Amino acid sequence: MNILQINSSAKSSGSESTRVASNIVNKLLAANPGATVEVRDLAANPHPVLDEQALQALFTPAGQRTAEQAARVALDDALIAQVQAADVIVLGAPMYNFGITVQLKSWFDAIARAGVTFKYTENGPLGLLQGKKVYVATSRGGMHKDAPTDTQFPHLKMFLAFIGLTDVEYVFIEGQGYGPEVAAQQKAAADARVEELLA
């Protein structure tokens, strides 16, 4: 089993999404002693944003790219290769201002490539990263689950399905801005959810 952990919090420490994602990975390792783990911290090693230069590089045929363009595309290629090689993906995805972090958005932009991780067919788009298990740990300052304010969850669900990742389990760590008592209750509930998923 190859496990890929993606941390997308801007925090280098004290991130609940990272804590829970790491907890999931540790339990997977305990159940699968021969498993390997790759951890990519998108804050410590941020991926460049999708700008005009990146788009020009991506849409230039490989044989015609400049050295600079080839190097830029290679950065995305490396992320795609990591995802393709993974059997299990564990994603730490905190909610910032009702959405995903800029770090995670850059990762999404890098791994979504037509003809590689998805393709268009006469019946619509088809995700090509099939057969993988995904766990998503998402922390929030407020209480947003199943509420109109949760625009992050639909985005995550739609994007992952678009590239073929449909076997997804979510762990919500809510109310982290509601004071110590509520925060502790929500952390405990999240930990119990992890236990349930990986018992």
From TrEMBL:
It catalyses: N,N-dimethyl-1,4-phenylenediamine + anthranilate + 2 NAD(+) = 2-(4-dimethylaminophenyl)diazenylbenzoate + 2 NADH + 2 H(+); 2 a quinone + NADH + H(+) = 2 a 1,4-benzosemiquinone + NAD(+). The keyword Magnesium does not apply. Residues 1-196 form the Flavodoxin-like fold domain. InterPro entries: Flavodoxin_fold, Flavoprotein-like_sf, FMN-dep_NADH:Q_OxRdtase_AzoR1, NADH:quinone_OxRdtase_FMN_depd. FMN binds at residues 9, 15-17, 95-98, 139-142. One of its GO terms (molecular function) is oxidoreductase activity, acting on NAD(P)H as acceptor. Keywords: Flavoprotein, FMN, NAD, Oxidoreductase. Pfam families: Flavodoxin_2. Its cofactor is FMN. It is an enzyme of class 1 (oxidoreductase). Binds 1 FMN per subunit. Its EC number is 1.6.5.-, 1.7.1.17. The keyword ATP-binding does not apply. Homodimer. Belongs to the azoreductase type 1 family. Also exhibits azoreductase activity. Catalyzes the reductive cleavage of the azo bond in aromatic azo compounds to the corresponding amines. HAMAP family: Azoreductase_type1. This is FMN dependent NADH:quinone oxidoreductase. The lineage of its organism: Bacteria, Pseudomonadati, Pseudomonadota, Betaproteobacteria, Burkholderiales.
